[in-house]
Amino acid sequence: MKFSEKWLREWVNPAIDSDALAEQLSMAGLEVDALEPAAGQFSGVVVGEVVECGQHPDADKLRVTKVNVGDDELLDIVCGAPNCRQGIKVAVAKVGAVLPGDFKIKKAKLRGQPSHGMLCAFVELGISEEGDGIMELPADAPIGTDLREYLSLDDHIIDVDLTPNRSDCLGIKGLAREVGVLNNLDVNELTIAPVAPTIDDKVSIELVNEQGCPRYLGRVIKGINLDAQTPLWMVEKLRRSGIRSIDPVVDVTNYVLIELGHPMHAFDLAAIDGGIKVRSANAGEQLVLLDGNTAKLNESTLVIADHNKALAMAGIFGGEGSGVTEKTSDILLESAFFNPVAIAGQARSYGLHTDASHRYERGVDFALQRDAMERATALLLDIVGGQAGPVVEAVATEQLPKVTAVTLRRERLDRVIGYHIDDETVTNILRRLGLDVQFKNGTWQADVPSYRFDIRIEEDLIEEVARVYGYNNIPNVAPMAKLNMTAHNEASVPVKRLRDTLVTRGYQEAITYSFVDPKVQAAIHGDEQALHLPHPISADMSVMRLSLMPGLLNALVYNQNRQQSRVRLFEHGLKFIADEQAENGVRQQAVFGGIVSGTSYGEHWNVPSRAVDFYDVKGDVEALLALCNDSARFSFKAQQCDGLHPGQSAAIFVDGQQVGFVGAVHPQLQKQLGINGAAYVFEIEVAAVASRVLPEAVGISKFPSNRRDIAILVEDKVHAGDVLATIEKVGGNQLVDLNLFDVYKGKGIEPNYKSLAIALTLQAVDRTLEEKDINLVVDNVVAALAKEFNASLRD
Prior knowledge:
Blueprint: E1 2-4, H1 5-11, H2 18-27, E2 31-37, E3 43-55, E4 63-68, E5 74-79, E6 89-99, E7 103-104, E8 108-110, E9 113-115, E10 117-119, H3 147-150, E11 156-161, H4 172-183, E12 205-207, E13 215-222, H5 232-239, H6 248-260, E14 265-268, E15 276-280, E16 286-288, E17 294-296, E18 302-305, E19 310-313, E20 317-318, E21 330-337, H7 340-343, H8 346-349, H9 355-360, H10 369-384, E22 387-388, E23 392-395, E24 405-409, H11 410-417, H12 423-432, E25 436-440, E26 443-447, H13 458-469, H14 495-504, E27 508-509, E28 515-516, H15 518-525, E29 543-544, H16 549-560, E30 567-578, E31 586-597, H17 614-625, E32 634-638, E33 644-654, E34 657-665, H18 667-673, E35 679-685, E36 706-715, H19 720-731, E37 735-744, E38 753-762, H20 771-789, E39 792-793
Parallel strand pairs: 12-15, 27-30
Antiparallel strand pairs: 1-11, 2-11, 3-4, 3-6, 4-5, 6-7, 6-10, 8-9, 13-21, 13-22, 13-23, 14-21, 15-18, 16-17, 18-19, 19-20, 24-26, 25-26, 28-29, 30-31, 31-35, 32-33, 33-34, 34-35, 36-38, 36-39, 37-38
């Protein structure tokens, strides 16, 4: 937003120069993009009057003039501007004047005619970047007056880049309020007196869309004179705000826009049929805009309409059919509050961006409409004359924004800022900002004014206090951090350890959906009850998963279809089990699962290539179980599991309770899903491996260990794990290591039997074991195996 510094200082005039003012605004969050002079550097230019203007005898495009510059001095000046004519007031650069660019005016002859000066255009004085012909000054401009003094050109144009939350500063009033707060100065508030109606003419107003427009004011002004000229002071203030003068009515609405920050619009009263309706656009409705383009209106667009047609896009752009023209004599002046939600994004959807939409979509003071109406009415009556009717207001009070009450705590303020600002200063800052503040027991209760849309929570007030107090006034103090030991149970096994273990074994983590295809899940888990989603994304994602298998199997197929022959994936997530005793009838259980396919190792010249098998995956699971440091609690038992090969599957038990499974995918399921080659999966409850046994340090035995190997014959149905468990029970404290190192079936072994070769390592901590001690342990082991499994020593 651009504005004149002098205009701002009419409202509040701090004792600082232009650069300091710009720096102050930037540090307060209103970033100043540019600070430029209102005109170029020139001198020797005065107000003059063209008293004679004739055609140059030797040039068709030149005119010979006599210009009165005061003190009965007439200057002969040759001018080529097409708008040069007798009787107008102009800007005259006399001989000796210096124009922008260090251009000096000297006596000259143009095609034989003397020229003792120059009639200046806006561009030549650095006042504007465009212009058509020489400057035409008002008829009452005093001849001979220095132009810089007459136009108050010793001024600066300040361009601020406001963040979207500071819409209250999109007007001189809001900026002045801000500068007054920053400098602890009172603002010269504009006195806006109501304009008494002199006629009874009015237009009915109906709020069809109250949510989009909860307040709308209209006023009829009749008998205006559009031949009147906009006052030079207004034209200059608008120019320095980047707005070109058009006609008095438009200029006044633009002036109020910049002055108060409130957009307004004027309709040609003759173009309105019946009354005003503020409604949403109808399907297929079109509107020819003021720029001549036709907009096809969306049904979400708010429009100002009469009883037959749309007149304007509310808060965005006026319509051509209802716009003020040179033939207009009666107008309807509009001042309204539009909900920012109703305007936001609408202008961009039509490829538009206007000063009005820029303000309305950020938020306009919902209590400012009547002041804007009275201010614009008074200005119009002074400039174009006419008679004003009464103000007609339609309001939906319940749809208007409510005054917000925000609490600020002393402790929170100090902690966030990192600096203590005394209570009186904080209270003063908040009150200067326009908030109604009460302070009690270390807490400020503040009612936010209607123009501060951005203050809603405690942090907003903290920001206001900090920026008004001045960021530069807050000392730089290095933060101090205190290190505290976190409360951590050493016996717990974090999920990250499980992840890291599998990553080091070549796995990659996958994340799959919790809702899966009911057909795939039924193929895995049979008729087990699944939870159906009431509003699924699609039919193949309509049930909650009973295990991680459906997602991992789909991930495997996805990778194989993209030429990934070796796949190792794991996932940590929840499975969802119907349970009437659980909250909401759903038991959510955290599990850890994985899937493996392809070769056991990547291709390498020194490693033989072989396909992954059951024991590879079982080894990966055992690596997870080993994190618990209590392998005796875990066991694997051959068991048919859902979706797994009946001869290559095992259940995982902890303290006799099943907590997972491992095995090969069932060939039928493998074929159904299109899996290439064998695939192996595992799943285990996270709770089963969530804790570990902490190691206890013991002294190392100083005495030698002794190894004894035994080979026993048992039936095929006997599990080697059960045999080892029995040996551990009867081995006593002297059995320090146990290892199955060979399984043999074949020549010399009876059918349906197998030979298990087992190494027993014996050692005592207090003495060297004698042979009789060793034999006693071995004999006890053999006897226990014979009793438990009908085992015998192999010859």
